[in-house]
Design brief:
By secondary structure, this protein is an alpha/beta fold. It folds into 4 domains: 95 residues, Gyrase A, domain 2; 110 residues, no CATH class; 157 residues, 3-Layer(aba) Sandwich (Rossmann fold), CATH 3.40.50.620; 240 residues, Orthogonal Bundle (Isoleucyl-tRNA Synthetase, Domain 1), CATH 1.10.730.10. It is 53% helix and 10% strand. α14 links the parallel β12 and β13. The longest helix has 24 residues. The radius of gyration is 29 Å and the shape is globular. The protein starts with 5 loop residues before the first helix and ends in a 9-residue tail after the last helix. The structure holds one RNA strand. Belongs to the class-I aminoacyl-tRNA synthetase family. Keywords: Aminoacyl-tRNA synthetase, ATP-binding, Ligase, Nucleotide-binding, Protein biosynthesis.
Amino acid sequence: MNTRSTLLNLHAQLRERVRQAAQEQFNIALEQIPLEVPPRVELGDVAFPIAFELAKRIRQATGSSRAPRQIADILRPALETVEGVERVEVAGAGYLNVFFDRARLLAELFSEKRSSTRPAAEPEARPKRIVEHTNINPNKAAHIGHLRNAVLGDAFVRILRAAGERVEVQNYIDNTGVQVADTVVGFIHLEGMALSDVRALDQSLPVDRPFDYYCWDLYARVGLFYRNGDPDGPEDPEKLRLRAEVLHAIEKGDNEIAELADYVSMRIVECHLKTMERLGIRYDVLPRESEILHLHFWERAFERLKAAGVIRYETEGRNAGCWVMPTDLHLGTEEHEADKILVRSNGTVTYAGKDIAYQLWKLGLLGLDFYYKPFRTYPDGHRVWVTTSDAREHDPAAPKFGGGTIVYNVIDSRQSYTQEVVKRAVAALAPEVGADASVHLAYEMVALSPAACEELGIELSEEDRARPFVEMSGRKGLGVKADDLIDQLEAGALGEVEARHADLTEEEKRAVAHEIAVGALRYFLLKWTRNSVIAFDFKEALSFDGETGPYCQYAAVRAGSIFRKLDPEVRERAATMIEDALRNGETADLLRRVFASESGDELWTLVMLAARLEEVIAQAATAAEPAHLAKYAFQLAKAFNLFYHRHRIIGEEDAVKQAVLIAIADLVRRRLTEALNTLGISVPERM
RNA sequence: GCACCCGUAGCUCAGCUGGAUAGAGCGUUUGACUUCGAAUCAAAAGGUCGCAGGUUCGAGUCCUGCCGGGUGCACCA
């Protein structure tokens, strides 16, 4: 188990007392004891609205009614004797409001010197969770929609790890799909290139227009090519035949086209990983679709699906000759079939089928495994592995991948239906594992605001202009490339840094600008909840003011600068005094006096907010919603900025008050930094 | 047609398993740098939480029905 924080411990004790008291006083067994934070600090630090619930239960059990306030009064003594509680009040219609011993709690929180290195006790012993994210088709440069996926997935990974979980990160590579085929069609039929030509071209490209950028444009040209130059025209069956040929050759393998496709796709994967590393996003393993095919994962899954009666062969009707999985997810109509086709009448498997096989492997239910070889090593030594179907290439040093207890798939909510099919198929094959082991971590798309389209020089129809957003389209080359956006953010941040810190070296300035750019971008993508469509707007995304990453970073930097300038002796004396309050009642009384003063409530509110970090991380992990943590980080930064504005720490003359201010600033600095790190945002020394 | 998601301040969005007087950012108006950094802070204005019922001691939150918007329902991935 993870080391419990001071605050969570107190919560647990209070809940237990409520449970006992309800049992002893009213003979009622409570399953859940809701605990809430009162709207204002004058109403206490935590509140239990449990008397209302008990009033109802007592009436149901005995027929006699008791006033909630009276019930709360009876429960009160049980809470008052908990260590760390100063007093308990009954308020409103029957709330039990608990007030903590501020001096004691501050001292305890201050002494938790663990910050970001807090060891989650033996995560190795925890059941493995797998998070799959990024999953970009390897045929063109990444755009901001892909970034939302990767940043969301990566933040979630960090949140799980902060909560003490063991996590494996996978990035699925669809290297044999239609989109790769399209780019390959471009090289062969539009450019007239063979593998050697593509290699030479790749070598000759300028750094600011690398291979993935080239393919971005080429892919858009292929889209036009299929439609004979008219973006809104019909697709030409003759041209589509070229795609089918290429796709077939890729799937078959062991030929020149497949080699070309392999070069293109893996070069693009390299580009994607480079882009993602700019944002601090890394992976453990890259499972590839080519291996799912060549190592016959599908055949194994197919046999089991047939044996279990999960799928059936259609002999008549529209789906004659296909293997389908019946579903009741929606009703079938003339236009739409209710059943999901897994094997086409020509014998080939659909995406959903392959995904079922892959999901079974991820859960350790398939009974087959990939071979693995190293793909690349990050500067700190962390290695990413890629799958291979060639046993001779297998590196025995490879860790054991797959076999997760819970698998989170970070995938666009537009794929909810397919994900539901996959989940149900797995649950039908392995009822002991069930549907809950497969989690679709769905999120809404990133679209473009009309203003963003204008800035990109995209012509909008009357109709589109009236809409709140316009969907991006890789096929049309319509979108904001990830690296372009990061470049713009870095340029903007560099300008701000230069204006403030002319004394830094070029290298230092660029490093700080990079941290700010990453902070801005990651926060921008995380501040929205998952089911909110992001209408991308340049002005908003490039802003460093208001609810942004740099705002949060700035608060932490200011806190840091206090400690850079604070006399170490003063700091040491303050720490000694605060810790002494844990043992010495007189010292504790001195601290209590500070909290009882005019600004006491305001100071305490900040302490309680900072104390809530673990709770928020746990909640973000359970809800799989990093936005909760992002909102919290902003709230904490905002509260700190207010504190910073109202109190002079270094110049404070009252030694006791100064000690309290120092302890609070230190606590908030540590908590804010940890919250930001858990979102993948670092805090520079200066900015 | 069916399924899922969303309607909260001028705009963009929060609102944890139902809880006390519905909150932020942007924008608007007005103030605060001789101070540990103004990428900051403060104040003002801004709301029938889409509409109508229901459950509950209590509903922005849960249920039903409408209205409005988005997405999906491929022998694409």
